[in-house]
Write a structure and sequence with these properties.
With 148 residues, the protein is of the alpha+beta class. The chain has a single domain, classed as Thiol Ester Dehydrase, Chain A. The chain has two helices and seven strands, in the order βαββαββββ. The chain has a seven-stranded antiparallel sheet. The radius of gyration is 15 Å and the shape is globular. It starts with a strand and ends with a strand.
Length: 148
């Protein structure tokens, strides 16, 4: 089994902070291969009052962002190690599909797998599941850049 990370370890690796840190825990991370991470979706999320009043639904773009953050954690722990300390930027997404709404009380499970790796660019496939049902999927690209 791969590595497990708590929120403190995630904060060490990702530059995101509340309210934009969207990964709560890493269940399994196998460098150069795959990650499984989770986000507990609560009614206290800052986007729910406006999306949508009376019928809260997590915005699809934030589901993809959370998937990308999980992929970013995988990328940080993969490759040559020369990218340590660099920022990772979300570059693109393809084949994005949303299958079911995500609502307060759901636990999102993200799975990402590296498809291709070049020196500073990673291409990954990702899925988001709730109760073992697919709610979203995408192919993601990310690139390492310098911190200013």
């Amino acid at each position: 089994m791969g590595n497990q990370y708590d929120i403190q370890k995630i904060l060490e690796l990702l530059p995101h902070r509340y309210p934009f840190l969207l990964v709560d825990r890493v269940i399994e991370l196998v460098p150069d291969d795959r990650i499984t991470a989770l986000k507990n979706v609560t009614i206290n999320e800052p986007f729910f009052p406006g999306h949508f009043p009376g019928q809260p639904v997590m915005p699809g773009v934030l589901i993809i962002e959370a998937m990308a953050q999980a992929g970013g954690l995988l990328a940080f722990e993969s490759g040559s190690g020369s990218n340590r300390g660099k920022l990772i930027y979300f570059m693109g997404m393809d084949k994005v599909r949303f299958r079911k709404p995500v609502i307060p009380g759901d636990q999102l499970i993200f799975e990402a797998k590296i498809l291709k790796w070049r020196s500073k660019v990673a291409k990954m496939s990702g899925t988001a599941l709730v109760d073992n049902q697919l709610v979203a999927e995408a192919e993601l690209m990310a690139s390492f850049g310098e911190r200013k």
